[in-house]
């Protein structure tokens, strides 16, 4: 009985990933995972939630683990009806790669800063990650459809 329930739960968790079959859907889900990992840290750096070093490290580690995931899902021609990806992703690949690298470097720095435990430094590193997101969105993400 326990094995059946466990199998059903695992299958239910896998359904959203299985349904997200287009590259645009996969990267959208991946970016949403990043947001869900990043925003709780934002609550801490904006002093809306208390700082707990161990919890913050776990959040930063989680973000670092998934940060590169969506960037594997930008094959040429993968703009669909819901995609907010701009054509500049493919017409300016070096610029897009640089934006990705800036984001990943900022995430790695945030993770390192989290492990050091200095909240003032964490707040600064969080801001650098947020700015890297904004810069990429400004250049490569279109308006909501």
Automatic annotation (TrEMBL):
Protein name: Cytochrome c
GO cellular component term, pick one: periplasmic space
Record InterPro entries: Cyt_c/b562, Cyt_c_II, Cyt_c_prime
Signal peptide: 1-20
GO molecular function (one): heme binding
Entry keywords, A to Z: Electron transport, Heme, Iron, Metal-binding, Signal, Transport
Annotated Gene3D superfamilies: Cytochrome c/b562
Organism in which the protein naturally occurs: Aquitalea magnusonii
Record's comment on post-translational modification: Binds 1 heme group per subunit.
UniProt: heme c binding residues: 133, 136-137
One GO biological process term: electron transport chain
Pfam families from the UniProt entry: Cytochrom_C_2
């Amino acid at each position: 009985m326990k094995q059946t329930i466990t199998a059903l739960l695992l299958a239910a968790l896998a359904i959203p990933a299985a349904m997200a079959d287009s590259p645009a859907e996969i990267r959208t889900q991946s970016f949403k995972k990043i947001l869900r990992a990043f925003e709780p840290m934002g609550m801490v750096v904006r002093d809306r939630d208390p700082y707990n070093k161990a919890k913050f490290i776990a959040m930063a580690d989680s973000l670092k683990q998934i940060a590169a995931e969506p960037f594997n899902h930008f094959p040429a021609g993968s703009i669909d009806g819901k995609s907010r990806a701009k054509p500049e992703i493919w017409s300016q690949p070096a610029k897009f790669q640089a934006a990705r690298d800036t984001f990943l470097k900022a995430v790695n720095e945030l993770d390192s800063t989290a492990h050091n435990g200095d909240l003032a430094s964490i707040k600064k590193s969080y801001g650098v990650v947020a700015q890297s997101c904004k810069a990429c969105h400004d250049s490569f993400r279109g308006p909501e459809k």
